[in-house]
Amino acid sequence: MPSYSINSKDFVIESFDSDFIFLDQRDGKYYEAAEKVADLFRALSTRICPMTLLNTLAERDKNIAKEVSEVMTKMQVLGVISLAEDQEGIVEDIDMVAATMLGEGDFVLEGFAELSSFMLADPVHDIDATTGRFVWGEQVAD
Predict the structure, then answer these.
(1) Are 35 and 20 in contact (CB under 8 A)?
(2) What is the dihedral of CA 63, 67, 57, 22, to 10 degrees?
(3) What does the pLDDT look like over 27-85, one tens digit per residue?
(4) Which of these, 55, 67, 88, 140, is most buried using a 10 Å CB contact count?
């Protein structure tokens, strides 16, 4: 079964503490993924098999499985992730990820547009071209 791939072409994705910020470079909007959504994104970015995860969750709690499915669909619609038919999803850590999804916390994925006009006028320019990640401070040559 396929996994998801992360859209690092259109999004700058940065981790802050245990949360993620997704900055859409196409329109300047940004999204905060917190609590269980951050954990889910972390798992999807390691190529966990989404269908196996949903099936495992459905066996334990159909409501949580539905919430996880809705969050994955929302991230797909936003363009943060896309199904990677050519990448086989891994299943080794499914039980650990499922336990996290079934644990305490909420599914938090919030969008913000108040800075979008500024982001489009002066886009983030300190980005490492190979990783797509923010460059903080001065770069030190090896």
Answers:
(1) no
(2) -160
(3) 888 899 999 999 999 999 999 999 999 999 999 999 999 999 999 999 999 999 998 88
(4) 67
Domains identified in the chain, total number: 1
Enclosing H/E stretch for 20 = strand 19-24
Q: Which two tokens mark 53?
A: 């995860």
Q: What is the pLDDT of residues 99-135, one digit of tens each?
A: 999 999 999 999 887 776 666 555 555 556 666 655 5
Judge whether 141 and 69 are in contact, CB under 8 Å.
no
**Sign of torsion, CA 85 87 90 94?**
negative
Give the domain CATH number at 95. 3.90.930
